[in-house]
Amino acid sequence: MNPQRQRELSRLISRLDRLNPGESLPEVQDGREIGAAFRIGVTGPLGVGKSSLINEIARHYRRRDMTVGIIAVDPTSPFTGGALLGDRIRMPELTLDNGVFIRSLATRGAFGGLAENANDAADLLDIFGFDRIIIETVGVGQSEVDIAGACDAALVVFEPGSGDGIQAMKAGLMEIADLFVVNKKDMKGADRFVLELETVMEMRDRSRSPAVMMTSAHNGEGVKELVDWLEGYYDKVQHEGRLQNRRQSQRIDRIKRAAKLIINRRFMAEVGSERIEAAEKSHLPVRDAARQLVEEFLSGQIINN
Amino acid sequence: MNPQRQRELSRLISRLDRLNPGESLPEVQDGREIGAAFRIGVTGPLGVGKSSLINEIARHYRRRDMTVGIIAVDPTSPFTGGALLGDRIRMPELTLDNGVFIRSLATRGAFGGLAENANDAADLLDIFGFDRIIIETVGVGQSEVDIAGACDAALVVFEPGSGDGIQAMKAGLMEIADLFVVNKKDMKGADRFVLELETVMEMRDRSRSPAVMMTSAHNGEGVKELVDWLEGYYDKVQHEGRLQNRRQSQRIDRIKRAAKLIINRRFMAEVGSERIEAAEKSHLPVRDAARQLVEEFLSGQIINN
Q: Do A143 and A280 have their domain in common?
């Protein structure tokens, strides 16, 4: 992709980031087909080496002559209030390669639509023709579930010994994982950690058990096997027809979440702070005050329409 | 509080847990005054000793002849899908004391209303006359912000050396903290950790800087001072009129969140899965499909009303 197209894409993502939930980009609207790219979600706790791993995965794909788009969803830093890391600073080796596009998205508090923005940005990368899209999220909360859960393959990355991380992980993230990657395989206790992880998986007694692989992003060990696994997985789900079903239910989830954002915004805009403050002063219990405001809003639609 | 009242309270909280966002308990509705109790939110990463600390705080309050209600909001365990720990098993010393009520609330996925339920349960404890209410949450995500942020004082607990925990913490939680508690003060590096924490606070350059205290819940060290601090804080905000303002804005936030839950549920119930699935099949971009559904829902209110 030439630099001009890259800049155009970058501008579109910036515009996306500023949209209200009820707005959309004409560039996404004009009926272009989405779905040619293979979307890979990579998540896990802070400090397990996700960026290095993605760097290695991207390099493998480039050797196979595929273009790679990367979206890094950064947590809002408690120190700066913004993205922790810059776009291309994260993965310096890839910055001069026009077959790679890297973009950070920061947490926006306003309408809680970070997951929607990340998934929509992935749609843009898809429209722009990237073969493989990697979305990185940091953490183990609901946003990570919403983002990785909207990918074709969800990878959860750990480092050996982070048993607390497994414990603290929300159930939803365990559910959506297609592959557990134990990075830093040279660390002490890596084999035992993989055993623990597999035991935990068995204990949970699910019909669908994610695979477990070991990598070492700093020297690239295991990354070729990981990319082989990803491609094998993608082929398999495509041929079995599972990919289409999965994407359909993902789109349904995304539509539901987007609709909730839109309706919440409509509610807030139309009811307004003054009426909410008045409801607070009524000293009704919280749920009753809320219900009353919702009734007012919904019947107000009669007048407005 | 006699065992019969305790059982009644417990049943009410169970009923609360099963309510839809649009429903409320008549027992909370009948105009009884809420606000006599001092609500203390305690949050922080897994394993820093929050339960032991709360146990010690409750014992101190009991010595001062105050009754204590404790709500422990447990994360859904990835292993069991339910609450990690039972109600009274957590704090065995307090179980035989009728002046203490302990109740766990599990994460419910259905409508995402865990924070609402926890805050409503605190209202019930308030109505039932507890002098001090402690709400424990595990983690550093949005639910913790929503719960601790609805208390009169928000405590964030760390253990020394958990610098990663500070890093991973959402900005919102740093904003709402009134007091940082460094528990396990006997651990190596505790003093340095407190310095780090204070430096981080200074770096953030906020007008309102939370206090930092050290405790050792396992031998009770520092807990008396912590309770003194809490009571001093409570007195101060009451006399300065800040408590009332804070509670008002908290109630406004709670009403907004409750209203969103109600309206989202109304939307899902009225639009229904079939129409959402049809919208997915339309191959419109996600945001446009969502906007169309919202428009249909809102204009449907004309017909329904």
A: no
Query: Which residues of chain A fall below pLDDT 70?
Result: 28-32, 75-93, 95, 107-112, 140, 162-171, 203-208, 301-305
Q: Is residue B126 part of a domain?
A: yes
ipTM: 0.84
User: Are residues B158 and B280 both part of a single domain?
Assistant: no
Q: Which structural domain, as residue segments, surrounds residue B169?
A: 3-240
Same-domain status, B148 and B229: yes
A252 touches B: beta carbon within 8 Å: yes
Place of tokens 């070492």: A216
- B286 interface with A at CB cutoff 8 Å: yes
The verdict on B111 and B185 lying in the same domain is yes
Q: What does the pLDDT read at residue B113? A: 72
User: What does chain B come to in residues?
Assistant: 305
**Any A CB within 8 A of B276 CB:** yes
Dig out the tokens for A3 from the structure.
Answer: 């630099």
Q: Which of A75, A255, A268 has its CB closest to that of B170? A: A75
Residue A15 pairs in a beta bridge with none
> Does residue B147 sit in the same domain as residue B175?
yes
Residue B160 is part of a domain; what is its CATH number?
Answer: 3.40.50.300
Judge if A30 and A138 occupy the same domain.
yes
Show residues of chain B in contact with A142, CB under 8 Å: 141-142
Output phi, psi for B237, to 5 deg.
-65, -30
In this prediction, residue B75 carries a pLDDT of 57
> In this structure, are A99 and A208 located in the same domain?
yes
> Looking at chain B from residue 186 to 215, which residues have their Cβ under 8 Å from any Cβ of chain A?
200, 203-204
Residue of A nearest to B27 (CA): A285
Q: Give the C-alpha separation, A91 to A184, whole Å.
A: 18
> Inter-chain contact A256–B268, Cβ cutoff 8 Å?
yes
- The distance from CA B299 to its chain's CA centroid, rounded to whole angstroms, is 36
Q: Which residues pair with A154 in a beta bridge?
A: A41
Rounded to whole angstroms, how far apart are CA atoms B52 and B167? Answer: 24
| Token pair of B41 as six digits | 């939110």
Q: Do residues B234 and B154 touch, judged by C-beta distance below 8 A?
A: no
Q: What is the pTM of this model?
A: 0.83
Distances (CA, A) of B65 to A19, A126, B62: 55, 64, 5
Structurally, how many domains does chain A consist of? 2
